[in-house]
Predict the 3D structure of the following.
Amino acid sequence: MVVELTITNEGNDLERIVLEDELPEGLVVTRGSTRMVCALKRGTKATLRYEVALSEPGDVHFGPYVLRIQSLFRLSEKRFDLIAPASIKMYPKFFSRRVFASRSKTYSFAGNAPSRYKGGRLEFMNIRGHVYGDPLRDINWKASARLGKRLVNEWHAERGLDCIMIVDLLRADIPRVGIWSGRSGLISSSYELAHGLVGSGNRLGLLVLGQTPVKLHPGFGSRHLRILLDLIITAREGTVWDAGSIEGFLRSFFRKQYRFRAGALFFVTTTPNADLLNAVKTLSAKGFSCHTIIANVLDDEARALTELRASDATTLATGARVARAEMEWFEKRFELYSKVFEWTRESGFVGFGRGPQ
Amino acid sequence: MTRKGVAALLYLVAAFCAVLDPTTIGLILAITCVSLLTVGYRFRVDFALVLSGWFLYFPLAGILSVLFGPFWSFLVSGTIIVVVTERLSLQNQLSFVLENPVAIDTEVKRLAEELSRVHVKRLIQVVALVTAIGFLAAAGALAFSAVSVLMLASVLILVAIGFYATRSTIRGPND
């Protein structure tokens, strides 16, 4: 993305100006400089131009920039803090895998929430006589022609499930190496899961743990998916709302789902840990259908460590083995109380539904 | 001359001072200069760069006294230090644009180079002015008492600096 900041001198000639843009956190300059030093004559313009890249999906806001007007030898200087508001929102890259080509049934659940797709044609049931109000597309023309009266096909009404996706954006659970962080993988996996669930006709709600609790009631459709994605992207990492507060939110915000134990809970995390395991265990014992999605970002982390030259190859290989073993250990524990899915950037969701039936 | 060139020049002057100045204090000042210059250059700190030059004021004056005499050598030393450190300071500012490997915006580069050229011209003017004032002061010292000329020159310099520093009518949104 190219950022341009143009200043115009409408006053007297300026011998030397320094224009400096304060780069928001999370942005990396790929081309150009955020600082400009030049002279500016009356009536002329100067443009500070640079290209930036976001290291991970997110929402960044450009705030103040500093303009210093100096004499040529810098014996005098005036500083102005000016505002040029702008914001950039970066969405995760989504490669369609098995869920995008059509309305996939990969994540279909026979829930009790009626699908938004009216007259859902999940499964053929019967042929009956036509009554006033039946949609034209349901008429079985061949059978009608054979028997000489109008007949319509009957289908099982499609029903979706109320799902609640709980995204673990706690600071301690997001691995971070230099400018790289596991947040990108977490957001991508959450988005892919949300896309699959909503695309399959399920209603999806959201709860993000972290700085501030982000909550969204279950809903259908692409508009809802867009809102959900925006909420995930703009959610801040933090330490305040942890796994212990999940049940409280379910009880107070997702009341219907909590009261009837309706729907399924999807826990999305990059680092499976004891707190989350405890929350899954508790909710599973209370009758919820739990699913754990582990976004495996170990390869990305190892790559970031290699780029930083933070450790040698042997240490890195040992570390990767230990991290893998830890993840597998937690996976086995999570499988006792929930169905465990693993997500990798390269191959999407793998290991479907290991866990209690 | 680029930032690297000006810094190399200052390193060279510091090396000369360290070698030619026989006193321990001269050596210490030269080493301090080199240390500050290295830090300032590495981390692009303007203050350290300017300060590093001023540590050479006395050793350089001592060395130049062989050529210009004990009185004029201080003026020459001061002028050299002012010119070199001022140039180094500007080059340091411009280096964010000119020496940045990803900074290839031609417009910003052109503006920076234009400023650099104006700066060189103004520095030449300053050197010419200092030389002229030096000669005038020498002529004045023949006719009047040296102390009164010195006092008058000091006052004039202060007035000139004050005028230069505040002459720009900068107006901002808060004025």
User: Anything to note?
Assistant: Residues 50 and 85 of chain B are 5 Å apart (CA to CA). The longest helix of chain B spans residues 57-98. The mean pLDDT of chain B is 84.
